[in-house]
Amino acid sequence: MGHLLGLRLLERYVLRLALKPMFGALAVVLAALLLERVLRLVDLLATAGAPVFLVFALSANLVPHYLGFALPAGFALGVFSAISRLSLGAELEAMLASGVSIPSVTRPLIALGCVLAVVSIAVTGFIAPLSRYAYRDILNSGVTYAWRAHAPAATFISAKDGLTITADEVDKTGRQLTGVFIQNRENGVEVVTTSVSGTLELTPDRAQIQLRLHNGVVVRDYGAARPSTLRFQELVLDKKFALEAPPFRPRGGNERELTLTELWSEMSAQPPSSPLNELQAEFHSRIVRSLSLPFLPLLIVPLSMTLRRNTRFGNAAAAAVLMILFHNALQIGETFAHKGRAPAAVALWVPFILFAAFSTWLFFTSTDRPGDTAVSRAIDRMSEAVQALGRRTIGRFRTRTAQG
After folding, report:
1. What's the domain range around 214?
2. How far apart are CA 281 and CA 272, in angstroms?
3. How many domains does the chain contain in total?
4. Strand, helix or coil at 343?
5. Where are the transmembrane segments (predicted)?
6. Residues 127, 200 within the same domain
7. Domain identity same for 168 and 299
8. Helix-strand-coil percent breakdown of the chain, rounded to 5?
9. What are the pLDDT digits (tens) for 64-110?
10. Above 80 in pLDDT, residue 159?
11. Whole-model pTM?
12. DSSP secondary structure string, 128-141?
């Protein structure tokens, strides 16, 4: 593959070192982000009485959204791992001694960042909006209108309009219920219905589902001394449940469901479908986050070229802090632009320009002496100051102890 792309042996080697940890990090980050959401979805589907297997379709539609967040972290970890391995194995020193420059080593990583920027634009700009709409469509049909006349035992089901149903026992079909308990409100009055048994069945027109109860009591609490009580031998619940969910709304309910081209068109429309500041914030945010990927190697490479263990850990922490600061700056800028408190072009592109400028400056000021950067020197000074403070504190403690 590398020969087909015209890559040299060194470039293929550097890319191979970076890609393996990058894909591993992407898998771990995506799994971590999805796991918490999957647990909530399972609980939501079970509570609504929807088929739990829908969690797979919902999770699949969440992947593009989370991939946009995981891609920078995975790429940064891959770059740091690759250059750190070259440094620790003395391979970087051998390359430099043979005339290979740091920009030559970094060039394939920047090229990889450009490829990932295109991937990010495709994912966040076109795939994620469609999958976000599909996620909400499935959630609407599977949860909001989820109840398909199947009730798991000993589970509270929020069926419709504040109606809560549970049963002590349910047969294998999920239609025959024993020990039924129903709670809802009618015109502000709390209504509790209990019955010995119940049956979920089709209405006579076979268009809806109804619940037929046998041998039970209906209690209405009007706030009086004694609530109203009605005993019955057979009662059909007055609430019916549709077999199929109504059609979901058209895509484009908000700016996050629009692709980049649709956002651009809406920004020029008169009037736009959403407030102009919200459309601009979403459009510029997606572009800026994708374009930041090619600059990540310029930031990470200088901080990963060191042989000292303590400095390596400190540089890794510094790189993580800088990326978090940049991400938070974009989040704040997007919020300000979304609320109309600042133009999107300023609130989002200024942090990007500062990040790109700092990364470029850090890279080109560290090529002469690999591993010696302004960040590493600042970390060394902070470490020395902390050590000096610790020595003074210990010295004062010992002096007071001796005097005492």
Report:
1. 157-242
2. 14
3. 2
4. coil
5. 17-35, 41-59, 66-88, 108-130, 313-330, 342-364
6. no
7. no
8. 60, 15, 25
9. 999 998 999 999 999 999 998 888 877 888 888 888 889 999 999 99
10. no
11. 0.79
12. HHHHHHHHHHHHII
